Amino acid sequence: MSFHLWRSLLVAMSVFVTLAISMAMSEVSAVDGDRFNTVLLSGSPGSNRQAVQKPNVILIMVDDMGFSDISCYGGEVKTANLDRLARDGMRFTQFYNNAKCTTTRASILTGLYPRGTNSNKHLRANMVTLGEVMQQCGYRTALCGKWHLGRDKINHPFYRGFDSFYGLLDGCCNFFDPTQPDPKYKGGRTRVFGQDDKLITNFPSDFYTTDAFTDSAIEAIHSADQMKKPFFIHLTYTAPHYPIQAKPADIAKYRGKFRDGWDAMRESRFKRQQEMGLAAKSWKLSEGDSRAYDWESANHDFEDHRMAVYAAMIDSVDQNIGRLLETLSQTGHSEDTLILFLSDNGGCAEEPGGRDPAKRNPGPADDYVAVGPAWGWAQNTPFRRYKSWLNEGGITTPMIAWYPSIIPGGAINRDVAHIIDFLPTLVELGGGVYPKQFKGNEVLPVEGKSMVSLLKGNGREGHANLCWQWAGNRAVREGDWKLVWDKLNPDKQWQLYDLSVDRCETNDLADQNPQRVKRMADRWFDWAEEMELKIKRK
């Protein structure tokens, strides 16, 4: 049986069971907002006040992709479908994630900063998830792809607001066969894959995760249509997270395109970003990285090869987004669907397995390779650092918003926004109200702010400050000022940047502004205590 037929039979059974349950239910509880059938949006382009149906929502997130990889953000990867979304929608230049897979996913789902450091405890009974609130707004909800927040009932997608789940409960897996264990140098684990509340342990020969997650999302669209409900789909690709594995035809498109090296790639990307208006002419490209390799002494063929595989993985994502857009067109949803696209953190500098060409072979299912720190840094042009670090390269994501009925086409939005803003934004668009109680528990107040005004091309009152932490790295942003603690900084002290004139963080102003440094550092430590982080004040 082919993979696509096998998946279709599974989803047909799931839809049948769900319809039976739905017909048997006499009443559905709501969070103050299920009675709304339309959303009133004032000030949208071309009208003073416009009533629209609740939008369908597809929230797409890729994994470990850099700020500048896709072509509409200056990259070499041919992403025609994402370019279309950007051309007809809005690109953000100061949109922030949490620099790490788990913490970003927790914040998107809850509208809150993550509490504590244990990813299995980021979802709690006193938190309501985006899936749960969208269900109460009348949506059919689906999580298609990577979860990475736990497998118990308190933190499993099928029990935390998603009518259907298909994907990876772990952080990464083999793209062609998720049952293949990680190599010993990555711990030797077999990753956990599932559908709804069941595990999947067998995969067909033509399996590829990026395609499979898209198949699941397309099926979720059809399922919602059958139930005559709007859909909310959280589509979370594992690409281009390592192991870097792609189809040979996709890899072939990019072989030879990266033989000039990471330094040259950064310079050409930065130039394109300036031409696009994403980077100001006054910006100074950040220089070097303490962990990057010297290009002249590198094996150029191997380095070109692994970056070509990485590019091919992003190309495959774009192809699949094209499949989604075609499905929206075929089902009549091209004008009533909001698509949001982002990455969970910056490009990744990790390098399990090393970079010895005699041992590593990027691309096929039988090896496990990563791009390493030099490419991982360059993927975030023009910014400093990468995943897990809190300079702009670790926390700034490309973010595209597309909704033809509301969002002005071709817009570049330079307002500061954060992933905690997704939940209040989507609840507002869905006609709901964030609850004070849920399933008998008092719920923490949402910490994000609605972006509906930004999506319409207007301004909003932003966050007073934003804070981050991961694995010894720290940051706080207040207005245009940003304070950063880089654990690799040999001086072991805070660094201060004025992002209004120095977005690439090249000019440390800490010595000239000791009072500001102290005040912002105190704010960060206050926040850290609120987030249950056991860190001594310095």
At a glance:
The protein has 538 residues and is of the alpha/beta class.
Q: How is the secondary structure organized here?
A:
Blueprint: H1 3-24, E1 38-42, E2 49-53, E3 56-62, H2 80-88, E4 90-96, H3 101-110, H4 130-136, E5 140-146, E6 164-168, E7 193-195, E8 198-199, H5 209-226, E9 231-236, H6 248-252, H7 261-276, H8 300-330, E10 337-343, H9 372-378, H10 392-395, E11 399-402, E12 411-418, H11 422-429, E13 437-438, E14 441-442, H12 452-455, E15 466-470, E16 473-478, E17 481-485, E18 495-498, H13 514-530
Parallel strand pairs: 3-9, 3-10, 4-12, 5-6, 5-9
Antiparallel strand pairs: 1-2, 4-11, 6-7, 7-8, 10-11, 13-14, 15-16, 16-17, 17-18
Helix pairs in contact: 1-5, 5-8, 7-9
Structure description:
A hairpin with a 2-residue loop joins β13 (437-438) and β14. The chain is of the alpha/beta class and 538 residues long. It is built from 13 helices and 18 strands. The N and C termini lie far apart (61 Å).
